[in-house]
Design brief:
This protein is 45% helix and 13% strand. It is α/β, with parallel strands linked by helices and 744 residues long. The chain has 2 domains: 244 residues, no CATH class; 382 residues, von Willebrand factor, type A domain (Rossmann fold), CATH 3.40.50. Strand 17 and strand 18 form a beta hairpin. It starts with a helix and ends with a helix.
Length: 744
């Protein structure tokens, strides 16, 4: 069964019964930060699902049950526990927390049994070539509590009592008390085993002729000497010397292996070899060649350095236009604004009204489909005469569920490449705003970019840092959000804003049709999309609360990929550290909201973009609906191929191993669908819905009219009317797609 570290991290969160943060690091063993509730896991290799369940389940058990001093890697600073005793604590505490986590999650029992069997097969406990039942009690206890009865481990009556106490531990205090008893027993047992092990072999071979043997003793005080001569032959002497030498080497090896703790180790204290062996072998599970996991925190936006309110935005437009034409031309400017806005209304008002009616009908149909009819229990007097032939004589109650309240946050790209699409984009945006206002859907519209000159005009000062710069946070560039429309405007404010937007749309048109120039404050720049989404997050949450919304729909309109972000902040003196998704596993996280998302390694899409979008949706509850404006002409094919993702999550380039002819045929079908419908739905990660729409002239809203060639007949009139309505729907792709999302 395939699994990922991310899926197992989710399992750890579920088992911990809280949304803990799980971080994978190149560390020798797992750790848990009790204060910040962060579980640090090693990056393991060659892991079966059972082994991963064991290691994560074990650490979650610690997270749920173990105090800080109980962790096997806890620093012993008080002198309460020496290093030897700490291994004994590990064994007893592991038995307790694994018992409790298996009790809480019975499905882990089978995984634990299989996983410990795998570790024993890998000799993680140092059992190769050894008789388990000849090992000290603490080692047999450790193996029994982990491997179970199938290992055939035996205990004497005293040991069985201690085992029962270990299995009965329920609290940390129980663990300390029982460990002290186990430690005392093991100290006596292991000292006896050492005495037996290193007793001189020739003394064990003495018989009745021992009186004939002479012994030599040195007395330093009296200078007396007593000699002892052995009657063994030379070969026996060589054999004895060889055995004594082996005993000495074994003793030295044990002494050396136990000296790893230096001054903390007392040679007279008992040891737990299996726990020491396991801790030493944990590093064998680490994947030294794996991609490093880099955890990057979401910075906090400083909205006072980012956001320009709608009043200031429209003031600057009017000031700029007035300065361009001079005070004498104000009357002409007002007339131009009025005419451009009236042209917009004439083209779109009737259709916006029809859309509003369609929307209300869709809502009513959706409610009716969800309505439930039930009997009230009261008799319907008008039906009582049928009681002898019909049981249906009770009044009916129809319960219609209350529809959810929707809101719209619209964000459009103000990058330089949008210059030739800006007029059509503004017109589509105005249609959406008109529709929302007509059906009382709360909305707000922002444009995003990073034009410093525009910000200076907006605020009267040079740009300041837009985001916090704490350690391990994304190093973000500046971004500016400019508010253009919102549903809180009164009629006068809304009319003024719409007239200015109609005029601004005209300013972006070709020279022949242009009545005014683009204001200096509306200069275009780059595409800081990630920065914009992070800045938009608190604004979206505020918008939801102010309007008491159930669902927020965030519509994003852009024509290019997001600006690259390659750094995170680190401690001084180094300002930033570089990363990318090709060489590292970059994880975007928000510890406050307990969120993590792995940035995918995508060449055709910024991996950080999808992770940040996941974070935005998670922390706001908003549905992101994306519209990507493709290039026109021959470039439309490459735009589609670069960004299209099918409903199975496969990118167009993922299937490029097929022949060129097959690839060309696939893209032909996509291009055809785009041209016929004026949009192509894609399934890009991070979006609830994502549409590719054509740019240039094809994005503009057409002024449709009813046209009938030749003699007018009912049939021709009907077809002409259907054709006209279809053209209206196609040319107003934004509002149509938006309605489709919120009407159900």
């Amino acid at each position: 069964m395939k699994f990922s570290q991310e899926s197992k991290s989710q399992l750890a969160k579920l088992m911990a019964t809280e949304n803990i943060i799980v971080e994978h690091q190149k560390i020798p063993t797992a750790m848990f930060n009790l204060k910040d509730r962060v579980l640090y896991c090693p990056i393991w290799k060659d892991m079966s699902g059972e082994l991963y369940d064991l290691l994560l389940g074990h650490e979650v058990g610690h997270a749920l049950e173990t105090p800080e001093e109980g962790w096997h890697n806890a620093v012993i600073g008080s002198g309460k526990f020496n290093k030897n005793f700490k291994h004994f604590l590990n064994v007893v505490e592991d038995a307790r927390i694994e018992k409790k986590v298996k009790r809480r999650y019975p499905g882990l029992r089978n995984s634990f049994v299989k996983a410990y069997g795998q570790l024993i097969d890998r000799d993680f406990f140092g059992l190769k070539g050894r008789d388990v039942n000849a090992m000290p009690f603490i080692d047999r206890l450790n193996l029994y509590t982990k491997g179970g009865v199938q290992l055939g481990i035996k205990f004497n009556s005293d040991e069985q009592k201690l085992l029962d106490q270990v299995e009965g531990c329920e609290s940390w205090d129980d663990v300390v008390r029982v460990t002290e008893a186990v430690y005392a027993y093991s100290k006596t047992e292991q000292n006896e085993m050492k005495q037996e092990k290193f007793r001189p072999r020739n003394l064990g071979m003495m018989d009745d002729d021992s009186d004939d043997m002479e012994f030599e003793f040195d007395d330093e005080d009296e200078g007396e000497t007593t000699s002892a001569k052995s009657q063994s032959n030379d070969s026996d002497n060589e054999s004895d010397e060889s055995e004594d030498e082996l005993d000495g080497q074994e003793f030295q090896r044990e002494k050396q292996s136990r000296s790893v703790w230096n001054d903390d180790v007392d040679m007279d204290e008992p040891v737990c070899e299996t726990d020491e062996s396991f801790r030493e072998n944990e590093s064998r599970l680490l994947d030294a060649k794996c991609k490093e996991y880099v955890y990057v925190n979401i910075p906090k936006p400083k909205l006072e350095n980012i956001l320009t309110p709608a009043v200031r935005v429209h003031d600057l437009m009017e000031i700029s236009w007035t300065n361009m034409i001079g005070s004498a031309g104000n009357a002409g400017l007002l007339a131009t604004r009025d005419k451009l806005y009236n042209d917009f209304k004439q083209k779109n008002d009737r259709y916006v009204g029809l859309l509003a009616k369609e929307f209300e009908m869709r809502k009513a149909a959706s409610k009716f489909a969800k309505a439930k009819v039930s009997e009230s229990g009261d008799i319907d007097i008008s039906r009582i005469y049928k009681y002898q032939v019909d049981d249906n004589i009770f009044r009916k109650i129809t319960k219609v569920p209350k529809g959810k309240s929707h809101g719209l946050v619209m964000l459009f790209d103000r990058s330089g490449s949008m210059q030739y699409n800006m007029a059509s984009t503004i017109e589509q945006m105005m249609i959406v705003a008109s529709f929302c206002r007509k059906v009382n859907i709360p909305f707000v519209v922002y444009g995003f970019g990073n034009n410093d000159n525009g910000w200076y005009l907006d605020s009267g000062e040079y740009s300041q840092p837009g985001f916090s710069t704490d350690e391990d946070e994304l190093a973000l560039d500046r971004v500016f959000l400019r508010e253009y429309l919102n549903s809180r405007m009164n009629n006068t404010e809304f009319l003024r804003s719409m007239k200015n937007l109609a005029t601004l749309a005209n300013a972006y048109q070709g020279r022949m049709n242009r009545k005014v120039h683009v204001p200096a404050s509306e200069g275009l720049s780059n595409t800081p999309m990630i920065e914009a989404m992070i800045a938009l997050q608190p604004l979206t949450n505020k918008f939801r609360v102010q309007n008491k919304l159930d669902i927020v729909n965030m519509v994003l309109l852009h024509d290019g990929d997001t600006d690259s972000i390659q750094y995170k902040h680190v401690a001084a003196p180094i300002k930033n550290t570089w990363f990318d998704t090709k060489r590292q596993n970059v994880v975007i996280q928000d510890k406050k909201n307990k969120f993590q998302s792995l940035a995918p390694d995508l060449e055709y899409d910024n991996g950080l973009r999808s992770a940040v979008f996941d974070w935005y949706s998670h922390t706001t509850g908003a549905k992101i609906i994306g519209f990507f404006i493709t290039t026109t002409g021959a470039g439309i094919r490459s735009s589609i191929e670069r960004r299209y993702v099918n409903d199975a999550g496969k990118h167009f380039y993922d299937e490029m191993d097929k022949s060129a002819q097959v690839n060309r045929s696939r893209s032909d079908v996509l291009v055809k669908n785009m041209k016929e419908n004026r949009f192509l739905e894609s399934h890009n990660h991070g979006y609830k819905k994502f549409f590719l729409i054509p740019g240039g002239d094809e994005l503009s809203v057409e002024n449709e009219s009813l046209q009938v060639d030749g003699q007018v007949t009912a049939f021709k009139l009907r077809n002409a009317f259907i054709k006209m309505n279809k053209k209206k729907q196609v040319s107003r792709v934004l509002v149509n797609r938006f309605i489709g999302e919120i009407a159900v």
